[in-house]
Amino acid sequence: MSQRRRLSAASIGRLQQRFETLDAAEMIGWAIQEFPRSRRAVVTSLQAEGVVIADMAMELDPSIRVITIDTGRLPEETLTYLETLRAHWDRPIEVVYPEPADLQPFVASHGVNAFYASVDLRKQCCNLRKVLPLRRALGDVDCWLAGLRRSHSPARAAVPPVHLDTDNGGIVKLNPLIAWSAADVRAYMAERGLPMHPLYAQRYTSIGCAPCTRAVEPGEDERAGRWWWEADTDKECGINGVRQPLRIVEIAS
Ligand code: SF4
To answer: How confident is the model at residue 245 (pLDDT cuts 50, 70, 90)?
Structure first.
């Protein structure tokens, strides 16, 4: 494996300031210019934001890597939608899976629906089914792009446009849609004729694993349908590093 390219904290701090004034396409363009094709990737759970990022990136580099995680508990609609997107773009999407050897002891000890029993077990399940597969997928990547918006939830309100992903080896993580609203995302998808995940038509505003996602009621937070039985948690699975709001890095003047 070739050596990973790392940016210093000072470089990231400068980029954070610069990227606050760039639009999404400009940020994606920076990643495409800066990193070789094999060392950068869009990672998407096939929600609208990730599909937008992938589509924008393909406009600049039609062969850009697009990765998704099949946790083994996805709704059937998501798997069908994966095939819809593959046909729409007429190109491959890399699918990564949890390791059975990671899952088996957990399921044997706690059952197949352990996530309902406690926040700790829910986070362990997310770790085994999402975080570890992503870490393996990013083993040969120096820069990844995802679809976080600051308007998604209070936990994401301070997400920077770029930061070092220390959970995955200190690589660069880009969030080009931080300033977008849900309406911006829908408008882009309509303008580009992109197919929508079918669950959006059933009052889902955020879509994850089937047993952990429900439709929302009018007025509820966009991510209220994720792990809806949990009170006062950050509603995060751990792959985006949003345990606490990520802060803009201060750089020495
Ligand atoms: S969302 Fe639910 S089923 Fe999916 S990995 Fe997390 S806890 Fe497990």
So the answer is: very low
